[in-house]
Amino acid sequence: MKAILTIFIVLTSVVTFGQKLKFKIVGQADTTVHLVKYSGTKLFYADTAEIKGGYVEFDGAKQQPGMLGILLPGQQLFEFIYNKEEVHIETQKPNFVETMKVKKSEENRIFNDYVKFISERKTTAQKLATEINTLEKTDPKYKGLEDQINAINKEVIAYQHNLVKTYPNMLVGKMIKMTLEVEIPEPPVDAKGNIIDSNFRYHYYRDHYFDNTDFSVDGLVNTSVFGNKIEYFFGNKMLVQHWDTILKYAYRVIDQMDPKSKAFEYVVSYVTSSFGKSKQMGMDKVYVMMADKYYCTRNAEGKSPASWMTEDKLEELCEKITVQKNLVMGVKAPNIILPDTLDRPWDKLNWINLHKINAEYTILYFWDPECGHCKKITPKLAELYDKKFKGRNIEVLAIGKASGDDYKKWKDYIVKNKLNFLNVAVTETILKIGKEDARMLIPRFTTLESMNIHLTYDIFSTPRLFVLDKDKKFIAKQISISQLEDMMDRLQNKTDLPKLFPPDKEEDEQMTK
């Protein structure tokens, strides 16, 4: 056993020793240089070393497979492939690619030849393109130049396909394969030769976009090619930027990956984070549902798919998601059963039930009589309701802050500003009774969710506004009064009506916070 262990240690040492990254850069003065790595499209520092006499060395054993780069002063960068092998490269400033010689590393020998080939063909094609742009299509030279450009394109494609075929299991081969365009077949036609689906090419391209991407190879994730493909796919040039569309294709792409792979981690993190930052109304659904499915779901062993997250972070995230997933677009709003403004004994209060409000559209409005921004928004909503919404089967349910001293302020504000829509609140009376014995109210009159309405609706600042359809499903949230007016007019085909409130950029921005 001791001998076996000794051999294992020796072999491990040899492997580690054999992963040196050595570079000779002719013309580079002694200085500090950085080894940089990709995570998607972004570059990060991976290591630092001193270059002396043109020589610099890094320990490759510390790095993960993928595309790495040497970053020199003045933001000068040249890239190379690392795939757990020793790398020796010589080059010369300032033309790193043209002068590069790969002394050791089969991956980089192939990659360097490829880059040089592409660079040469690109230069030739650009010269031809510049010349052809000066000519009319009727010019005798035009067709010849066009044929030359097409020939170069075919040559490049043939080179790429041959490289991929020759080196199918090498990282460089898989990386180049990832850049290959999807070959789209001719669209199907009917008996008369007419194209059946005019969008066939788009649908095929979208559905086969990742055919040339091997999600099981972790090294591909650490290349800008992978990051660019993911960004393009989820961007507006490929997918309609609607939350349900994004989720549909996110699930389709991610669910074919091994949850232990780097591709899974990267794509889950990218989609969740990028759409979580979106300012587009409703895109929070992507963030919430991605988090619920890929972070908060647990397997039989109680493990989250998001193995890169600490348990503390997961618990913090999932506590919020539990609430937020009930507030996303297309979901039926949690019911609200609260008393209106009439002063009556607690057992004879007039309770308003959100789910029983018979309206084509219902606007939920959370406000505070002492809130500065609410004082600007609430009178506008009251005017909009009185002058345009009241007779159009649009109802407003306003949930105010009315506990303690706020009860009188709430009622006074309603009277003073003539808030003629439905006004409800968790008043001090029912709050006190609920604390003494919640069974006196629940479930006879109300619900626990209604008594904890600000937690149920994730209300930590006011004003907050939601729009519900006839089935009480969310169709809009956090829009300004002018946006609300415009939306309701469009939904009910009343666009010819004059607008009470013109667009207000400051209010729009305030409501989306």
Automatic annotation (TrEMBL):
- Thioredoxin domain boundaries: 327-493
> What Pfam families does the database record attribute to this sequence?
DUF4369, Thioredoxin_8
InterPro entries listed in its UniProt record: DUF4369, Thioredoxin-like_fold, Thioredoxin-like_sf, Thioredoxin_domain
Q: What name appears for this protein in its UniProt entry?
A: Redoxin domain-containing protein
